[in-house]
Amino acid sequence: MKIVVGSTNPVKVNAAANALQKVLDCDDCEVIAYAAPSQVADQPMTEAETRLGAVNRVKACVRAHPADWYIAIEGGVDNFADGPATFAYVAICNGPEWSVGRSANLPLPVSVFRALTKGEELGDVMDRLFDTDNVKQKGGAIGLLTNNLATRQSVYELAITLTMARFNHSDLFKA
């Protein structure tokens, strides 16, 4: 079984590989990392833009590689009624069927969100605040703000597992 992941970021690739291997019960899945363009800003600032980025990445994967499964994860931020937060959208396609899901919100300090509204990316802001290097390819803001009780990868794996429910029980999701 071939799975194409719309990113070369090791956190996203590993999250997709781990979650899909469990859900699909596939120990020998071939996982291909592909630098799929999101066609949205490097730091998506709304739910809609973040969702669009994930969907666009999957569409690019479908055009670029023949495979059984396509998956993309797009991290973004938004300012909600309870304050700014980061989250991710997951898009998964197996050819004819699609499923799009979302991770939980991680609250962000207002000072971090302000930096993002000025054009910075979340990983860069968190690296500066916590004196880390390239945290977006490691535990992410999630790891830093939860004292590593959760990580970017663990949250992505859960979001992927939840998004796969539509495929696990596709008969229940037919209109």
UniProtKB/TrEMBL annotation:
It comes from the Bacteria. Residues 6-167 form the Non-canonical purine NTP phosphatase/PRRC1 domain. The keyword Secreted does not apply. InterPro entries: ITPase-like_fam (IPR029001), Non_canon_purine_NTPase (IPR002786), NTPase/PRRC1 (IPR026533), YjjX_NTPase (IPR050299). One of its GO terms (molecular function) is hydrolase activity. Binds 1 divalent metal cation per subunit; can use either Mg(2+) or Mn(2+). Substrate binds at residues 7-12. Keywords: Hydrolase, Magnesium, Manganese, Metal-binding, Nucleotide metabolism, Nucleotide-binding. It is an enzyme of class 3 (hydrolase). It catalyses: XTP + H2O = XDP + phosphate + H(+); ITP + H2O = IDP + phosphate + H(+). Its EC number is 3.6.1.73. Its cofactor is Mg(2+); Mn(2+). Pfam families: NTPase_I-T. Belongs to the YjjX NTPase family. Homodimer. Phosphatase that hydrolyzes non-canonical purine nucleotides such as XTP and ITP to their respective diphosphate derivatives. Probably excludes non-canonical purines from DNA/RNA precursor pool, thus preventing their incorporation into DNA/RNA and avoiding chromosomal lesions. This is Inosine/xanthosine triphosphatase.
